[in-house]
Amino acid sequence: MSNVTIKDIARMAGVSHTTVSRALNDSPLINPETKEKIKSIAGSLNYTPNYSAKSLVLDRSYNLGLFFTTLRQGTSPGFLYEAIKGVNEIIKDRYNLIVRGIDDYKSYHHVNRKSFDGIMLMSQSAADQPFIEYASDHGIPFIVLNREVEMSGVVNLIPDDQSGAYRMTEYMLRCGHRRIAIVEGKAGFKSAQARKEGYREALLAYGIPLQDELCIRGDYGLESGYKAMVRLLALPERPTAVFCSSDDMALGAVKAAVERGLRVPDDVSVAGFDDTGYSAFTTPALTTVRRPIEEMSRAGAERLMALLETKESAERKTLFHTELIVRDSVKRLNTE
Amino acid sequence: MSNVTIKDIARMAGVSHTTVSRALNDSPLINPETKEKIKSIAGSLNYTPNYSAKSLVLDRSYNLGLFFTTLRQGTSPGFLYEAIKGVNEIIKDRYNLIVRGIDDYKSYHHVNRKSFDGIMLMSQSAADQPFIEYASDHGIPFIVLNREVEMSGVVNLIPDDQSGAYRMTEYMLRCGHRRIAIVEGKAGFKSAQARKEGYREALLAYGIPLQDELCIRGDYGLESGYKAMVRLLALPERPTAVFCSSDDMALGAVKAAVERGLRVPDDVSVAGFDDTGYSAFTTPALTTVRRPIEEMSRAGAERLMALLETKESAERKTLFHTELIVRDSVKRLNTE
DNA sequence: CTGAAAGCGCTAACAT
DNA sequence: ATGTTAGCGCTTTCAG
């Protein structure tokens, strides 16, 4: 029932508990034979160190936080999934991974250096700026993923959303589309802004003015894509292509089009962003932009662990490349 | 920078640290005025208790584990998402939620009563029986969700998969289908077996023999649904309806059918299981069985917390009802 | 109502 | 190479 302590082992081995502690921590000062003996006793007694005690004296909690802006809305299941998977793969059982939406906390009181050795913030919105400042003020080692932050000295891993959106829009333009709408992401989310910017830039490069009526606000969710498409289809002059800032919204948009008797991509083209596992399996398969969440999360975990061990990390800002994934939901209007 | 301890507060308040401890823990033995004074000092100093110290003396870690059989395959993003969301909603900041796939552990060494006050196991497969026994042997309070376990005395919350599958199959039969295939879930997963059983039972009730060629093994993933459908469509006599044991597989199945020029549901009907957020937005909208993961997770968190506080929990086994969700992917062949 | 003292299990000087 | 001692920050007898 494992209430064995180093003192018990010490007694059995006929040494002091200090020696046991050292042996178990592989101190080089201990006689190899003694060490072997102690370890074997520990093994046979099924000894497990009491991490609360270790934590107290070593001033480490062995907890790592993986925090999201919110778990309620705007965070897609696929996003959460890939992030957790990526991080867990790296930290193995060296740390406990604590997953939380920032908005689950009434106060940040429980978030402190004693309780978290480090924090990875999957930042989605500027709304978590206060949290970032809190962490910074309280000297908690942290890194920010997914959203670019201005703060200096912060390790910041971000996907290159803007150029992804640029390439997608450019692709649509190359396919001959000229009237291209965008369904934007959640208001206040940096990623939403970056994707819009890439879209704008591409249009500009082709000398096409940005039209307000073709920019519809969404919130990254399925439903909002649906509603946006309904509005777009009601326009006097319909777009020939719709760039949705998330795959989920693209799904919703396709749904709206199909319900109104239109065919995708024959009557209207639709593209997404994210490349969730589903996008290859929708009908039609979704042309989208792949966002390397899992890779970014793995890298984040590595960087955070390095930061905890060496107390510093070289590169501050790292861009993760997005990739255009061409499937079947955007029609080629020309032969180029 | 919050390295304030109760001793600092004691000094400032002119009392002993014992009194501070008691005051902060709302002990009734402390003079209300003293208490107020101490609390206000603590507040102004921005005191945060050191949870490692509390943990050591109180023998509680304030950690709750949410464990999955695996995070690599067979666990859908939606499943993970709803489970985490449900649990976090209940535990708020009273506990840390640690999310892990059991197969992330090389050994269970780090899983013990000192490190986890309690564990919720989202059990998907009999493969985690050893883990359950481990937890039980080591006296870690735990409850098992999602999969029925034989072990007595274990709090066990499970969705009623079998009757969900039964109702779905029955619905297909009522629609006039007689040649109904099933794409089964991951081998070894209890849920896969239960869904198959519900299917079998319904066929039996209608006097239809189970045909091996209509039972295809899948693994709950998109791809496996696709492959299964390919095989079914190659049959000399095709099924008129295909019951997939997960929405993901249903998506794959629809994909395969459409690629082969068939229309769903006009040429072949497809149904799913789970009712993930996506199922209403696929084309056609998926007829499926809703599985109340979030509710079950919330209930699980409540039960676990009750178990930790009162050291016992009344009901051992609770069934969560699944629900038939009729949408557009199953065709009515008759007029009944 | 408050304080002194002990101790949770561990690590880390400081001896030797 | 090993032991002695102190102490991490907190709660909890036990005394008063």
Automatic annotation (TrEMBL), chains A, B:
Pfam families: LacI, Peripla_BP_3. SUPFAM superfamilies: lambda repressor-like DNA-binding domains, Periplasmic binding protein-like I. GO terms for molecular function: DNA-binding transcription factor activity; transcription cis-regulatory region binding. Keywords: DNA-binding, Repressor, Transcription, Transcription regulation. InterPro entries: HTH_LacI (IPR000843), LacI/GalR-like_sensor (IPR046335), Lambda_DNA-bd_dom_sf (IPR010982), Peripla_BP_I (IPR028082). Residues 4-58 form the HTH lacI-type domain. This is Substrate-binding domain-containing protein. It comes from Paenibacillus validus. The lineage of its organism: Bacteria, Bacillati, Bacillota, Bacilli, Bacillales.
